[in-house]
Amino acid sequence: MREKILLIYRICASIFCAGAILSLMISYANDNKQQLKKLQQDLVKKEKSVQQQQQQRTTLLSKLKQQEQSICYSTRAWRNTRKTLNLLNRDIDRLSRSISKLQSDQAAQHKLLGQQLETVFRQGQYVWLQWVFSNHVERQRSERIRSYFLYLNKEREKKIQDLRQTSAKLTMQKIEQQQKKYQQNALLQQEDKLQRKLQSTRYHYQKTLISINSSITDNQESVIKWRQNEKRLRDTIARTERKVKIENEKQAKNILVARTDGLGLLARRQAMWPVRGHKLHSFGEPQLGDLRYKGLVIAAPEGSTVQAIAHGRVMMADWLQGYGLMVVIEHGKNYMSLYGYNQSTLVHVGDQVKAGQAIALVGSSNGGTPSLYFEIRRQGQAVNPIPWLGR
């Protein structure tokens, strides 16, 4: 009997333990499900966050493009305004000199006319008295004197007419000078407005750059970004080369090709540097990860003139992600030169340029020191530019 009771206790204990274990297992399974659900929710949030960051970066890059183009247009407009102002200043200086001369002429004419009038008045009184009290011979002599004074009167009338013309011309030039000064004042106000707009755009541009750079948190992401930029550049160059090929086929006797034999025939160390400055990065230097620079990065003051290294034709003058405002010049014989990080472009697609011609202004599209990104490409492949550039 006692053994039966012990057996029942053992069975009950086993059932209780099994129930407890099962309960723990169910609880553990539920906990795992909750953790899995939470992980899935976190993953969804992360994915949404990544998507939002990507959308934000896309928006920032679009804004960056607009701001760089705005800086380009504002800089170009400012340069045009400055040229017009210089012309106006020269016109105003010329008019000032002319007005000063006319005023001197007017004063001299007044003085001469006064002297003539005084002489005529005095001599006229004397001749009239001679006419009254003289004999016949003296009257004949007086007639000759009278004829002389008639001649003087004609000369006086001519001087009066000259004086009137001088006065009229002086009045017209003063009016013209005043109009030029009004134009000058309006252009100065326009220039001031353009400068403020340019400064504001540059400020927002720097903020956008900071926002973009802060969104890049690891090297792998940066490597991907640089690879994408490089691919965009290769694709752009490939498209440009296709356009060049099509155009050369249509124009077998193209003036450019006849006049420029590419950089291959240019003597070594003969091409001019695109801008004067010191090298920040050289061809082949490590850039990021296993990426290397395909050209030179030359530091120069912002706004410095970028020059074409040789004769050629502009095949691209537009914004390119990773390189900012980019100018690409085709030199013939499958040679191209590329100029990036620009603040403003000064040429348009299709323009023929000469060696040393200004094509752009140095900017800071790389997000750091104002500099120029420069490449030479042969048959689409980047080559070391140094052998072609002068010392």
From TrEMBL:
<feature type="transmembrane region" description="Helical">
    <location>
        <begin position="7"/>
        <end position="29"/>
    </location>
</feature>
<keyword id="KW-0812">Transmembrane</keyword>
<keyword id="KW-1133">Transmembrane helix</keyword>
<keyword id="KW-0472">Membrane</keyword>
<dbReference type="InterPro" id="IPR050570">
    <property type="entry name" value="Cell_wall_metabolism_enzyme"/>
</dbReference>
<feature type="domain" description="M23ase beta-sheet core">
    <location>
        <begin position="294"/>
        <end position="385"/>
    </location>
</feature>
<feature type="coiled-coil region">
    <location>
        <begin position="29"/>
        <end position="105"/>
    </location>
</feature>
<dbReference type="InterPro" id="IPR016047">
    <property type="entry name" value="M23ase_b-sheet_dom"/>
</dbReference>
<feature type="coiled-coil region">
    <location>
        <begin position="223"/>
        <end position="250"/>
    </location>
</feature>
<dbReference type="GO" id="GO:0004222">
    <property type="term" value="F:metalloendopeptidase activity"/>
</dbReference>
<keyword id="KW-0378">Hydrolase</keyword>
<feature type="coiled-coil region">
    <location>
        <begin position="153"/>
        <end position="192"/>
    </location>
</feature>
<dbReference type="InterPro" id="IPR011055">
    <property type="entry name" value="Dup_hybrid_motif"/>
</dbReference>
<dbReference type="Pfam" id="PF01551">
    <property type="entry name" value="Peptidase_M23"/>
</dbReference>
<keyword id="KW-0175">Coiled coil</keyword>
<protein>
    <submittedName>
        <fullName>Periplasmic septal ring factor with murein hydrolase activity EnvC/YibP</fullName>
    </submittedName>
</protein>
